[in-house]
Amino acid sequence: PARAPGPWKAFPGGGGLARRAGGQNGHFVGGVYVGGVSDSPDATPETLQKAVDVVDYMFLGKGWDIQKAGQYAATQDLQAVFNYPIPIDGKYTYEGVPGTFADAWGQETLDAAQRIASIPLAPDPGLYFPAENNPGPDTQAIDDAWSTFSTVAEGVDVAATLQQAQDTWNTQAQGFSSSVADEEFVEGARAYYADVEAFWQQNSPQFYEDAFKPWYESTVKPALG
User: Fold this and answer.
1) What is the spatial distance between Cα 87 and Cα 30, in angstroms, rounded to a whole number?
2) DSSP helix/strand/coil, 150
3) Same domain for 155 and 114
4) Phi, psi values for residue 216, rounded to 5°
5) Which of 85, 104, 189, 207 lies at 20 to 30 Å from 195 by C-alpha?
6) Which residues have C-beta within 8 Å of that of residue 87, sequence separation ≥ 6?
7) Cα–Cα distance between 188 and 182 in angstroms, integer?
8) Which three-class secondary structure state does DSSP give residue 17?
């Protein structure tokens, strides 16, 4: 399994699944991925219902079990079947598969995955601010940095590369002119950060006290007035 330096340590046989960060602040950033499915807006209600039924069958119903049983038949490998820690259908056993997620990765890994899955998402800033009509800088500077890490085998100064990407992006952002009025932005920001503060207080008290609160009170509050 993969093993990162510092507080990040993989479980034995965990395929790179890492424990929750326990470093200076114990900060963990979670995320949710949901596959997109789209249909023609001109489709009839009957056609749309059939499309939904297919997706439901293939990813949440009997069809998913059939796919998983096929994976096991082809590989005889439970880790190939249970190939992600938080399944789309919430199931850790499948019809036709002689084993469970815990058999594949260990109960400790399953317990950790379920703890992580229970952590709610932080407030979405997109729900607090008016839509921005003026596009900001693209992600090319950051993409270039990640490309360097992916393609250059040796001799990469990671800190310097990231610093250069940050400096480039910040320089580009300095020329940004927002379509959102200052008073609208401040109103949205105050509401957003109030909810973010409450989120971290409840879900990561150590991170809140050690990192978020000092930064919030010394940087964000003075900026918002």
Assistant:
1) 15
2) helix
3) no
4) -60, -45
5) 85
6) 101
7) 10
8) coil
Provide the total of helices (H) and of strands (E) in the chain, helices listed first: 11, 0
* Cα 83 versus chain centre, distance: 17
Task: Count the neighbouring beta carbons within 10 Å of the beta carbon of residue 180.
Answer: 15
pTM equals: 0.52
Closest of 118, 115, 74, 113 to residue 97, by C-alpha? 74
Scanning the chain, the segments in alpha helix (DSSP H) are: 45-59, 62-75, 78-81, 101-105, 107-117, 140-151, 158-174, 182-203, 205-207, 213-215, 221-224
Q: For residue 122, what are its two tokens?
A: 């932080």
Same structural domain for residues 108 and 145?
no
Q: Is the same domain home to 14 and 84?
A: yes
**Chain segment 111-137, per-residue pLDDT in tens:** 988 887 888 889 999 999 998 898 888
Domain of 113?
A: 1-119
How far is it, in rounded angstroms, from Cα 89 to Cα 64?
9
**Total structural domains in the chain?**
2
R_g of the chain, CA atoms, integer Å: 23
Q: Which residue has the higher pLDDT, 163 or 134?
A: 163
